[in-house]
Amino acid sequence: MQGVDPVALFGMHDKHISALDKAFPETKFNARGDRIKITGPEEEVDTALEVIKGMLDILDRKDAVEENDIKTLIALKSGESTARKPQIRDLNEPGDTIIHTHNGEAISAKTPGQKRIVQSTAKQDIVFAIGPAGTGKTYTSVALAVQALKDRKVRKIILARPAVEAGENLGFLPGDLKEKIDPYLRPLYDALEDMIDRDRLELYLAKNVIEIAPLAYMRGRTLNNAFVILDEAQNATNTQMKMFLTRIGFNSRAIITGDITQTDLPHRQQSGLISIQKILQDVEGIDFVYLGEEDVVRHKLVRDIINAYEKFEQKNSK
């Protein structure tokens, strides 16, 4: 790691080394200047090395590695390591079925990351599911919401998305406000149509048992007895993220999904999904689930595309 500023990499007083010590208790880290020696169990050392490589990649893109960067890397790399281990049982066993579609097909947790979403939602009131495209974050979340409604654990489902692609002014698009906004909410409708027959879904939508709306529509409301999903949350600003989270009322739960590598916010505007990881990291009742390329359930080429983009961006940053 010659030429690397040790303070920028390891933090003041090696505070990032302390974070690594805590995350990998059986591994010893000995940092001297721009060198670091790692000793411990092979599997844990391999994962720790991946985290440090990630730290170096971050340092190529900005002035210093931050505490939140370390936590995100540890969560991502540890998740990948867990996924590579043999699973105790098949994830598609009956016990992992979330819900059945109106055609009788079982919707199950198909990957380790999806299973962690299911497990965390059963224990926590607010869950953040962060990972790349194609990992089933939205689909799994909608399935959990529909099942909660069927089990009468909640009275309604609220699905929200920031309409960032449309900009602040939707006037140039044809149609009324609903017709202008619906294209940005279409993925949520698609997931619901798989799980609820058309007539019942139309009834639920008409009676606001299921509500699909832009994030801006949540302002000023209190959401009681509801299962709330904020999708594409990387496109929510810090202010919008705070607004959304403070809407959640009694007997409600929420899942916030997003891909922090694909924000569409204007330049210089920070994603609320990125900063929230640091703000809420120690709050009880909130969990962060990180999904990786091993959780991609779309066409097999999607994983290769994600890897190719990551390599291209790392090469360009250098």
Descriptive overview:
- Strands 7-6-8-9-5-10 form a six-stranded parallel sheet. It has a two-stranded antiparallel sheet with strand order 1-2. The protein has a two-stranded antiparallel sheet with strand order 3-4.
- The chain contains eleven helices and ten strands.
- By secondary structure, it is of the alpha/beta class.
- The two termini are 14 Å apart.
- Helix 3 packs across helix 4 (67-84), helix 5 (112-123) runs parallel beside helix 6 and helix 6 (137-150) packs across helix 7.
- The chain is elongated.
- It has helices at residues 6-10, 15-23, 42-61, 67-84, 112-123, 137-150, 177-195, 198-206, 238-245, 272-279, 300-317; strands at residues 28-32, 35-39, 97-100, 106-108, 126-130, 156-161, 210-214, 226-230, 253-258, 286-290.
List the helices and strands and how they pair.
Layout: H1 6-10, H2 15-23, E1 28-32, E2 35-39, H3 42-61, H4 67-84, E3 97-100, E4 106-108, H5 112-123, E5 126-130, H6 137-150, E6 156-161, H7 177-195, H8 198-206, E7 210-214, E8 226-230, H9 238-245, E9 253-258, H10 272-279, E10 286-290, H11 300-317
Parallel strand pairs: 5-9, 5-10, 6-7, 6-8, 8-9
Antiparallel strand pairs: 1-2, 3-4
